[in-house]
Specification:
The chain is of the alpha/beta class and about 200 residues long. It has a single domain, classed as pyruvate-formate lyase- activating enzyme (Alpha-Beta Horseshoe), CATH 3.80.30. The chain is built from nine helices and six strands, in the order βααβααβαβααββαα. Helix 7 runs antiparallel to helix 8. It is globular and about 50 Å long. The mean pLDDT is about 95.
């Protein structure tokens, strides 16, 4: 018998490696962690309470303790013009870690959120859909670790799954074909039809 959990990066910080090893001994088998991105300006903008260095430090402790973990990447979080830098920063951090799965979901702003008000105020500009596809492509292209990808969430206009490094070339081709084929308006219309996640 084992158990898993969801956690924030900041939840790991108070635990020493010895304490984490003890949790592993007590059958803590896996942790799902929403890192969102490793792009510090975006983490600050979203008041996440941690930076890329914290992601690296805390998840390295899980590696040392022998606890498996999966991470969630929130595509599009940086807003217009920040997709590539977010992808590069995140890949650079993840390449120094050992996640089992990278789950990719795409930011969808709903009217009840504070971010929706920021969109209305013009203080936050959503990342265009084509830029989001390019962001995901950049993230995957720059990853050089052995990891499983789960990007088949409803929020993703181009769903993908696979295992790196073996499936990388095929996944990149999917993105290239989608970027060439789908107009921004069609992809945006898809997102506008999402009423819940």
């Amino acid at each position: 018998v084992s158990f898993g959990m969801f956690a924030r990066v900041t939840d790991i910080a108070p635990k020493s490696v010895a304490e984490l090893k003890n949790l592993r001994h007590m059958k803590l088998d896996s942790i799902n962690i929403g890192i969102e991105t490793a792009h510090d300006p975006t983490l600050d903008r979203m008041n996440k309470g941690y930076h890329a260095s914290d992601i690296l430090e805390q998840l390295s402790k899980l590696d040392e303790a022998g606890i498996r973990y999966n991470v969630f990447y929130l595509n599009g979080l940086g807003g217009k013009g920040n997709g590539e830098v977010s992808a590069i920063a995140t890949a650079d951090v993840l390449n120094r870690l050992h996640p089992c799965i990278i789950n990719i979901v795409s930011l969808t702003v709903f009217p009840e959120s504070q971010l929706y008000q920021d969109v209305l105020d013009g203080t936050y500009i959503e990342e265009p859909e084509i830029e989001r596809l390019m962001e995901m492509r950049t993230l995957i292209d720059r990853l050089d670790i052995k990891v499983n990808l789960l990007g088949h969430h409803i929020s993703n206009t181009v769903p993908i799954t696979g295992a790196l490094p073996g499936d990388k070339a095929a996944i990149l081709r999917e993105f290239d074909e989608a970027i060439a084929r789908f107009p921004e308006t069609e992809l945006k219309a898809y997102r506008n039809r999402i009423w819940h996640l």
